[in-house]
Specification:
6-stranded mixed β-sheet; single chain; Fumarylacetoacetate hydrolase, domain 2; binds manganese (II) ion; globular
């Protein structure tokens, strides 16, 4: 048997400090909504609710190798492209019903990510009670920096996460402000879906989300994990 056309290439993310050609193949992209209190409040919510999830297609990743500047095309249909700075968890070992106490055994590593959002389309979908796909799951909507192995990351409650746009601070927080921790996210998520090697989890954004324009340069960093830089370029 053969495919009726050539299968598409596997979406993949470069690995920091790995063998020259090491790539992490992407299976699915899960995202956590409203996982920092101050961001939930800025979006009009109380900041106290159970975690909820949405997805982006695997080929929405925009991988950007550490030390390089990625190019993201301004998306169609929107005039309000927002940045959401997030810690990304990469799953190396799959499973279902994973208890929080064992969750970190399933983590391969971490990266800096941006959950780019067509905020105008997401707001319209919310108002009409429609799915968020068009606001969240569009092409190139998941920029991600090089992945770093878990063993090489030093993450704790004081770990700083920050985003500058054109050199000016836009988002700054610490991982201790996550409402649901990484192990708790994995526990909840693996009740709803069987996790698999290659899954990426965008863990939610702190406050300070805002619009970007063509020509803007976004510089994101998480201490002990890495950096991610992209420039917004004209749409296609
Ligand atoms: Mn987000």
């Amino acid at each position: 048997m053969s495919f009726v056309f050539a299968p598409p290439p596997t979406p993949a993310v470069p690995v920091q400090g790995g063998a020259a050609a090491a790539l992490f193949p992407v299976h699915r992209i899960y995202c956590v909504g409203r996982n920092y209190v101050e961001h939930a409040i800025e979006m009009g919510h109380s900041g106290r609710e159970a975690p909820f999830f949405f997805m982006k297609p695997a080929d929405a990743v925009l991988p950007v190798a550490e030390g390089t500047v990625g190019r993201m095309h301004y998306p169609t249909l929107s005039t309000s492209l927002h940045h959401e700075l997030e810690l990304v968890v990469a799953i190396g070992k799959g499973g279902r019903d994973i208890p929080a106490a064992q969750a970190l055994d399933h983590v391969w590593g971490y990266a800096v990510g941006l959950d780019m959002t067509r905020r105008d389309l997401q707001a319209e979908a919310k108002k009409l009670g429609r799915p968020w796909c068009i606001g969240k799951g569009f092409d190139e909507s998941a920029p991600i920096g090089s992945l770093r192995r878990k063993e090489d990351c030093q993450l704790d409650a004081a770990t700083k996460i920050a985003l500058d746009v054109n050199g000016k601070p836009r988002q700054a927080s610490t991982l201790g402000k996550l409402i649901w921790s990484v192990p708790e996210i994995i526990e909840h998520l693996s009740k709803a879906w069987e996790l698999a090697p290659g899954d990426l989890i965008y863990t939610g954004t702190p406050e300070g989300v805002a619009a970007v324009e063509v020509g803007d340069t976004l510089s994101a960093r998480i201490d002990g994990v890495g950096t991610l830089q992209i420039q917004i370029v004209a749409g296609r």
